[in-house]
Structure formats: C-alpha cells, structure tokens
Amino acid sequence: MTEEQTGDGLAWIGQHAGDARGTGDGVAGMRGSISLTAVRGADPVDFLVRMGADRDVLERGVLYKDIAARWSGEEYKDWQCMFGTSGEWTFLVEDYLCATWYLDWIEEVEGAMPRRGEELVCVTLNRHQAPSRLVYSPGDGEVWCMGIGEDSLLDHPGRADPTGKVAALDEALRQAGVEWRGDDLLPRVFHTVGEHLGIRLPRHEIEAGLLPAAALPDPTQ
Predict the structure, then answer these.
(1) Can you tell me the distance from the alpha carbon of 148 to that of 153, in angstroms, rounded to the nearest whole number?
(2) Beta carbons of 17 and 32 less than 8 angstroms apart
C-alpha cells in the first residue's frame, strides 16, 4: 500500500501549508502552500483546456520538473500546475497564492464553471486574501463556498441542497472539527475532503514534480 493511501490521507498537503516553499536537491516539485482542485465527471485534458490551457502542450505530457528545459517561452502562462487522476477524479495542484480555478470562479470564467454531472471541490489557500476557502459543487451546477475556520458550507440562508451532498460534506467537516481554529485546521480539511470524496494523491510524485504540467492564464488580467 502506498504512502498516500495510509495514515491521514491528504493531511500532508495541509501540513505543508505552513512550510516555506522548498526545492530539495534542485528538483522542481511542490513542498509547500499547495492548493487543490479536483473534478469528477470531466475529461482531464478537456477540463484544463476550458481553464485556458493549450491542448497541444498538455498532450506532450511534459513533467512539472522538466518545464524549464522542455517548454518554449510561448508555452508559459501566468501559473504552472501539475495534474493527474485519482479514480474518477481529475486533480490539479498548485503552489501559488491560490487555486487558479478559484479565481476563474470569482471572475465567472464560463468554460471553467462546473457543469451538470461534474462534481468539483477546491481547497484554495488564498495567501493573497485570507481566509483559506473550500468550494464545492455537488454535480448539479451549483457552487457552495466557505471560509475555512470562519463558517460552514451551509451558511447560505435560503439556498436549497437537493442532492444532499453539500450537507453530507459539511457534516463530515463538522465531525472533523473544522469549525475550530488551530494549527492543524488545514490538515483536517484536506484529510476530510480526501476521505469523504475518495480522492487520493501521489505524494512522492507531487513533491518531486513527476506529474504532467499545465500552464494556466490568470483570469484577473
């Protein structure tokens, strides 16, 4: 059984959140301040293209650690991420200020919005504007958002939750004590999201930059 399938699941991402970004032995990977976006029900390449990535660059499959040597200047955009799959989920991990998908949502980038049949979760650290946030779409095209440590997914008076999935995730977070504050808040959020939604990430590959890379535009520019 691999490391990411044991212990606290995705808690290591939250544990990294308080660390300074490191490069190890010159390997361009991710070891700190990681934001996660995951979608189920969408083709991985198609979803990234909807977010503004170039299909031909994606299909070349350049590893994150190799982008400086393998990409031309025209292939860089505002931010680089790694992507992969976990069962039915496509995931993106980034170590910038926040998750690009979150900015797409704020800016109402039409192509990036979850469609009916697409379940999406985003844990964005929001280093530029606290608090960190959890955004969730249960598959009906609706999007719910909470400030981590400040409120809950259901703190939206008058909104209906016909799928029941929002309430189920909110209850899992509550049971994990996510409404409490503390140094282990983000580890508990990532762990709960991973366990509740069945998302597993390859820790070693992410830390070493061994997953394919994508370049995404800043939707605020």
Answers:
(1) 9
(2) yes
Question: What residues form DSSP beta bridges with 38?
Answer: 91, 121
Rounded CA gap, 40 and 42, in Å?
6
- What's the rounded Cα separation, in Å, for the pair 140 and 153? 16
Of 89, 7, 95, the C-alpha closest to 41 is 89
d(Cα 35, Cα 213) in Å, to the nearest integer?
15
Strand-pairing partners, residue 37, are 92, 122
pLDDT, tens digit (0-9, with 9 covering 90-100), for 36-78: 999 999 999 999 999 999 999 999 999 999 998 999 988 889 8
Counting every residue written for the chain, the total comes to: 221
Q: Return the CA Rg of the chain.
A: 17
| pLDDT (tens digit per residue) in 152-180 | 999 888 899 999 999 999 999 999 887 66
Tokens of 148: 């981590």
pTM for the full predicted model: 0.90
| Dist CA 149 CA 131 (whole Å) | 8
Beta strands in 52-112 (DSSP E): 79-86, 89-94
In contact, 101 and 219? CB cutoff 8 Å: no
With beta carbons less than 8 A apart as the criterion, state whether 55 and 169 touch: no
Spatial CA neighbour of 102 closest among 123, 117, 116, 118: 123
